[in-house]
Amino acid sequence: MNMRNTSLLDINKFTPYAVGFDRLFDQMNKYLDSHAQSTGYPPYNITHVDNQYTIEIALAGVSKEDIEMLVTDNILSISYKPETSDNSSESWIYRGIANRGFTRKFTLADDIEVKEASMNNGLLTVVLERLIPETKKPKVIAITSR
Fold first, then answer.
1. Which of 27, 32, 44, 128 is the least buried, fewest Cβ under 10 Å from its Cβ?
2. Whole-angstrom Cα distance, residue 20 to residue 62?
């Protein structure tokens, strides 16, 4: 049985061929480490069309004012911390709707920018766009005669 550690990426296999990719490998290791203990809550979808990505997160019972979104060092972090109520008059018979806090992190490529975020009917939608700099766009080269 092959027991290998899948939570860490062995960059030694790539270093003879990948010069200058240290930051990328560090980000991949951080991603693998941070998602190893992920609970899967809240559920989300990611779609991709052309140069646009959309993240949809199901947040029943959460208002947009209670959500914090932050982009730092190419990490999109979406958090919710519910208010704890000591309302002793409340007596739950059954509580099936989760009202727990979370922090969900998405690692973004260098050329991805958050364009907008909206909340509608308990669904948080975050629109991201891949910005292609002029230097990376295809360029037609004219051929001249000498």
1. 32
2. 42
pLDDT one-digit tens code per residue, 5-21: 455 656 667 666 666 67
Domain spans of the chain, in order of start: 1-37, 41-136
User: Per the structure block, which two tokens stand in for 51?
Assistant: 């140069």
The encoded tokens of residue 144 equal 């001249």
pTM of the model: 0.68
Whole-number Å distance between alpha carbons of 53 and 46 = 7
Instruction: Look up the CATH architecture of domain 41-136.
Output: Sandwich (2.60)
**CA–CA separation, 22 and 20 (whole Å):** 6
How far is residue 64's CA from residue 119's CA, in Å, rounded to a whole number?
6
